[in-house]
Amino acid sequence: MLLCVDISNVAVSLGLFAGEKLRAQWRLQAQKGRPADEYALQLHALLAQAGLESAPQAAILASVAPALTPVWTEVCRRAVGQPPLIVGVGVKTGVRIRREAPRQLGADRVANAAAAKALFGGPVCVVDCGTTLTFDALDAEGDYLGHAIAPGLHMAADALGAGAAQLAAIPLARPERAIGRNTTESMQSGLLFGFAGLVEGMVARFRQELGEGMRVIATGEDAALIAAETPVIERVEPWLTLIGLRLIWEMNRG
Fold it and tell me: What is the Cα–Cα distance from 97 to 94, expressed in whole angstroms?
């Protein structure tokens, strides 16, 4: 089995693949300063809880949090008995990067692009609904052209509560109506329906540049919540980055 690790600044997503099948997946809080020992114990407990009959034999890691990369490199080494493949310069991905400063592109963006290309070909827009709301663009050949970045749903909700003294934190859920009858409904409407409108607007602009044949796939923690409010998202793959990591590992295995 293959252990895939995707590290952002706020979360660590883990997936365990048996061949092409994702057998188990978890999302942990990213905590800078936490030692590898603690993460390794947590991973061991998760594997045992899932009732998996064997330990992973290999690992691949993508990280946009440099402080956590060596920690999880050690966690993976303990879990599989060897260092993980780290997505970076020199690793085959199957995707040509045609934006400026390609080496500065996050490994998670590359993994998403690899998975989207395998699933849809091109042109395709990947809507990543995580900490940030990121739109990745692949052209008709599946080449990565660039992306757009906006605040994510939770980030916007936190900013709304922090910036307005009378607006308390609310659950991110669908309100009954767009015109809120109370403060909670009003905030939920502005956030959820507002983000659905943002997605529709950005997808329309990407389609103008990529062509009418552009496909749209959404991923990330809030993908299903936003996709339920707009018809422009054709498919939701919550663990698209992990799928991309598995594909990259297959391309690079000896």
Answer: 10
